[in-house]
Amino acid sequence: MDREKQSRQVMSGVSDAHDGMKALPRKKFKKPAADPFDLNELARGVESGSRLHLGKAITLLESTNQKHKKHGQELLNALLPKTGNSIRIGITGVPGAGKSTFIEAFGTMLTELGHRVAVLAIDPSSTRTGGSILGDKTRMEELARNPKAFIRPSPTAGTLGGVHKKTRETMLLCEAAGYDIILVETVGVGQSETLVRGMVDMFLLLVLTGAGDELQGMKKGILELADAMIVHKADRDNLPLAKKTVREYKQMLHFLQPATEGWTTRPSAVSSIEGTGMKEIWEMVQEFEQAVKESGYWDTRRQEQTRDWFHSMITDELLGRFYGDPERKQQVKDMEQRILNDQLTVSQAVTKLFK
Length: 355
Description:
Blueprint: H1 3-10, H2 39-48, H3 51-62, H4 66-79, E1 87-93, H5 99-112, E2 117-123, H6 136-139, H7 141-145, E3 149-155, H8 167-176, E4 181-185, H9 194-197, E5 202-207, H10 211-217, H11 220-223, E6 228-231, H12 239-253, E7 266-269, H13 278-295, H14 297-324, H15 326-340, H16 346-353
Parallel strand pairs: 1-4, 1-5, 2-3, 2-4, 5-6, 6-7
Helix pairs in contact: 2-3, 2-4, 3-4, 3-8, 15-16
């Protein structure tokens, strides 16, 4: 089997390479025999903006193969100087709020303004089978065909917060590929959405009309994470109610702590079908970026996010090593049985395991 065919088999991104390769990063990589990933080629392709190579690079990072994981980190390290030059926007909302519809309309408008948009769409994984539908490219057909956009659906793979463990690193690769706006679509609303807030610059919450009833079932913690509240589907007969909902949110937001220093959370009515309110949202994003950068909190937040990421990775590594030891796995099974047989308390079992 030739290398080109092998590459096609392992690549799960979107094709469409761009012409014209940029200079190779300073560090050159030695390609191991029988490895379908050529790091030099990937680095050149990602830097040139090739969606084909970006998809391959993300696949390499997401691989559970130890050799691939090592190569993925080497590639990411070489591309780090090209990262950090985007605005990262998290988008969440109640079920049925139209997150994908909004992202397609918003993303299309941004590309028309000359921006390059990467969408990291997170699909929930089944707790029983571990499978995922990964249908976001189907729901965003127009944006998926746009040469200035890149859509990468990823399963949550059991990660809290509805975010794949590699989402942060995927964002860095997209930045290295020249995407200046990163949109992260999350599974839905829940307490664990704080993890999304911890990796983006601005957090948008999509809601529907009828704020009075909806707020009763929405957790206050989610509202306190939002930098903007988008009352979606504000069109046709629903427009008057949407405007009323915006007024209700304006009153309610006075009683909540702002999500970001130097910025007051605002509600706004938007229709993805009619395209109304989209430009206002983008103007709000730009105003947010300017205000937060002037306050000095932009860099502070990103540093805090990187530090939190570091500590969460330590936790992941500890868990991986603990459960990855075959002997330890058997000990855990033995302790489970003794607990179920009322021979040990849970605390006693844990203490024995860590002796």
